[in-house]
Amino acid sequence: MLFHGLHKLTWFPLMSGLLVLGLPAFAAAETTTSENDKTPETMVAALAEDENVEDVERSEPRADANSDAQPEPQPKTTAAQATPTKPASKVAPNIDLKEVAPAPEPTTPAQAPVTETAAQEDSEVRPGEETVTAAPVSTEPQPAKSFTLLDSEVLPGTSTRLAWSPGIQIAGLSQPTPVLVVNGAKAGPTLCLTGAIHGDELNGIEIIRRTMYDLDPEKLSGRVVGIPIVNLPGFQQGSRYLPDRRDLNRHFPGSPDGSLADRIAHSLFENIIRRCNMLVDIHTGSLKRTNLPQLRADMNNADVATFTQGFDRMAVVHSSGSPGMLRSAAVAAGITTVTMEAGESHRIQEHQIEAGVNSLTSLMERQGMISRMFVWGDPEPVYYDSDWIRAQHGGILFSEVELGARVSEGEILGYVADPITNAQFPIRSSSNGRIIGMAVDQVVMAGFAAYHIGTEAEVPGE
Ligand SMILES: [Zn+2]
Question: Which intervals carry biased composition (Basic and acidic residues) (predicted)?
Answer without folding.
Answer: 55-65
